[in-house]
Amino acid sequence: MSTVAQILSSKPSQAVHTVPPGASVREAIELMARQRIGSLLIVDGARILGIFTERDYAQKVEVRGRTSTGTPISEVMTPDVIFVTPATTSQECMALMTGRRLRHLPVMDQGALVGLISIGDLVKDIISEQQFVIAQLESYIHS
């Protein structure tokens, strides 16, 4: 079973993209499109104020008739951010994500933001673990 630290170390980029609370929704979605990511953290200095996801855009901007250029990100972000630590296991993350219907989890270590993992990162890790177990079992059977 992998830990978040192991998952983060296997990612090609550990960059976490952020915007300030005064940024417009348009600025946020443009950054998300450029970086090909599904979420951004809203920060004030080192303090995390919230998270903004594609789901937030669909449910709080588009459906409600707000404009992307005229809406500050702070009005549509999800303020209650759930975090994990580098020691959290992939199974604990998967249970948290499925139970709370989340797709992204920021990773905090001693009060500092150190990364962000997605449901895709977890699926990739779990598949890799399963392939390893299958290979071991096949090796055992054929020896």
Automatic annotation (TrEMBL):
It comes from the Bacteria. SUPFAM superfamilies: CBS-domain pair. The keyword DNA repair does not apply. Keywords: CBS domain. InterPro entries: CBS_dom, CBS_dom_sf, CBSX3_CBS_dom, Diverse_CBS-Domain. Residues 12-68, 77-132 form the CBS domain. The keyword Flavoprotein does not apply. This is CBS domain-containing protein. It comes from Sphaerotilus montanus. The lineage of its organism: Bacteria, Pseudomonadati, Pseudomonadota, Betaproteobacteria, Burkholderiales.
